[in-house]
Amino acid sequence: MAVARKQVIIDTDPGIDDAIAIFMALADAGVEVLGLTPVAGNAPLENTTLNALRILDLADRPDIPVFPGAARPLVHLAPRYAADTHGELGLGEAELIAPSRSASSEHAVDFIVRTVRSAGAPVTIVAIAPLTNIALLVATHPEVIPSIEEVVVMGGGSEGNVTPAAEFNIWFDPEGAQRVLQSGLNLTFVGLDVTHQANLTPDDLPRIAAMGKVGSAVARMLETYDAAHQQFYGSRLLPMHDALAIAHVIDPSLMQFEHLRVDVDCGFSIGRGATVLDRWGITGAPKNVRYARTVDSERFHLLLMDRLDRFSGVD
């Protein structure tokens, strides 16, 4: 008897590691990607939408629709995008042509609501971007919350990568993230504490570059990513933040989790966008997140390289 494929919507702001995460999901036989819902984050919405379409073109997946969502954070405009890490257009130095098609005119939130209501199986949302689209979803259609199996969030951490305290996805829209954390959704958070245990290295790039047109494009993207990480961290380890969130959907045994309370600092001090982890129940607030603590790094690396290698015959 065939095992049912996991029904997944990927909420994304491509982004180099977003692209790798999407390729990983598309290559897995146990995952059915129902659609991509771009949002502003690593780049403006226009670019993240075009990049989502380009990624699907590279993977020869014109069947997967793209539904643009929010063009700005929920309340306050973010100070900047992430061009320093992902390049001005979002996909580094990869030389990608114009998409072969346009995105849908239907808003991301409307697509998610329609899909969750009509799906014959539970739907998982993998949110590897600022949480604006998901915040809009729970604000406008709270009735669908019980029908969403899980929301896997790449975000947060006990230290930051855009400020000393804040990880980019949460920092870009703190109010949106806090709204999601208060929503009652079944939330799994994959943050910097664990994504920095899940790396590629420059030694992986030649092998990836040989994996057909997808691998060639990914290797070019990773050259930009590598340069940015050398400058920021002084390291050539390449954390696969977003791919680790997809890896959890493919293999939930990869990581160890802790159930705790998480909130976001929505103030305007140095802590804005920080995820505040209440491990000991000090606030008395109910636990709201399964928070990833450790990952089997070797297994993750093997899984990621195997899924990318499945594109070797796509030319």
How is this structure best described in words?
With 315 residues, this protein is of the alpha/beta class. The chain has a single domain (6-309), classed as Inosine-uridine Nucleoside N-ribohydrolase, Chain A (Alpha-Beta Complex), CATH 3.90.245. The chain has 12 helices and 10 strands. The chain has helices spanning 16-27, 45-58, 83-86, 108-118, 132-140, 168-172, 174-181, 192-195, 205-209, 212-233, 241-250, 297-309, and strands spanning 6-12, 31-38, 123-128, 148-154, 187-190, 199-200, 238-239, 255-264, 275-278, 289-295. Strands 2-1-3-4-5-10-8-9 form an 8-stranded mixed beta sheet, sandwiched between helices. A two-stranded antiparallel ribbon has the order 6-7. Strand 3 (123-128), helix 5 and strand 4 (148-154) form a beta-alpha-beta unit. Helix 1 packs antiparallel against helix 10 (212-233), helix 1 packs parallel to helix 11 and helix 4 (108-118) crosses helix 5 (132-140). The radius of gyration is 18 Å and the shape is globular. The two termini are 33 Å apart. The mean pLDDT is 94.
Strand and helix map with partners:
Layout: E1 6-12, H1 16-27, E2 31-38, H2 45-58, H3 83-86, H4 108-118, E3 123-128, H5 132-140, E4 148-154, H6 168-172, H7 174-181, E5 187-190, H8 192-195, E6 199-200, H9 205-209, H10 212-233, E7 238-239, H11 241-250, E8 255-264, E9 275-278, E10 289-295, H12 297-309
Parallel strand pairs: 1-2, 1-3, 3-4, 4-5, 5-10
Antiparallel strand pairs: 6-7, 8-9, 8-10
Helix pairs in contact: 1-10, 1-11, 4-5, 5-7
